[in-house]
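tool_call predict_complex ligand=FNR
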Amino acid sequence: MLFSPLQIRSITARNRIAVSPMCMYSSVEGMPNHWHLVHLGSRAVGGAGIVMTEACAVSREGRISPMDLGIWSDEHAQALQPVVEFIRQAGAVPAIQLAHAGRKAATAVPWLGHKPIYDQPHGWMPLGPSPIPYANGYPPPLEMGTADLKKVVDDFSAAARRANTAGFEVIECHMGHGYLLHSFLSPIANQRRDDYGGSLENRARLPLQVAAAVRESLPQQLPLFVRISCTDWVAGGWDLAQSIQLAKWMKEVGVDLIDCSSGAVTADSPIAAAPGFHVPFATAIREQAGIATGAVGLITEPAQAEQIVGTGLADLVFVGRGFLDNPYWALHAARKLRANADWPVQYARAVGVPR
Ligand code: FNR
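tool_result ok
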């Protein structure tokens, strides 16, 4: 099953393995470069069905760090085109994750300490639902007003339009990991008293407006994914029951798949990470909201991935660090599972896999 094609709307992936979005922090002013071509391209050569970019900022202020990839102008989209084209030529579906970092924006890249830089010359003030800092050392974000909320919806919608122009065939909106849209969902970060805070309907309003606007700016045949944190792992925070309701609403506005992750709305939430630990969330949402799901998180073994997809626990698996460790993770998985997967014609004979 792992190597059976997955069709969503008019797009068919050759298998149910997606490269999970992973920040490379290797851009200047959001522009892609040779790193992105080789990094994403080699995972497409390595047999993944879907190759998704890292979190791609929909606006300058929505970057996690000054070195994030971005798509806030047509020049960004144009520069992404060769990357998209290569992924497609290598047989994978090119996908992009659209993101706004919210109150977790304006930090140094991980290898320079990942500390907030809002008060430095190259920094900026992060935005959020309420002036509650993410963690010690982070500033209280600027509380977003009506114009800011409208700008976020417009930015996501324009970014999706550009992504489509660049040739991406799957668009994912990042609504997890404590970034802007998750911070609206979670009562831990959102204590607004207007239409965007309080009840679940209100906290879900901005994420749903974004999803609806993105759906509208895409052609009908292209799938739309949404990544969520299914729980904050904190009492009084976001949880699975709310995720299931959100998934039902997302389905109504035209979202096709929920990519199930968790946590990261606070720096000190105790995440119970273990092999496949998000799979039960993906299964519950799939069954109770009636929407396709992807599972991510410590899916490292081909047999484990096969079991998840083959027994209907999720429709697809996202593999992150496994693909950093081995760009050919998917081809090696096929070999282990004795499944058919096409090695690149340039390599096949030499490694003893005739095509
Ligand atoms: C990530 N992750 C991540 N998630 C996301 O939604 N957008 C992103 O840009 C990133 N960036 C990122 C960078 C790096 C270096 C890592 C290791 C992770 C999370 C990632 O997509 C995935 O959900 C987790 O890594 C768990 O899956 P694995 O790695 O256990 O397969």
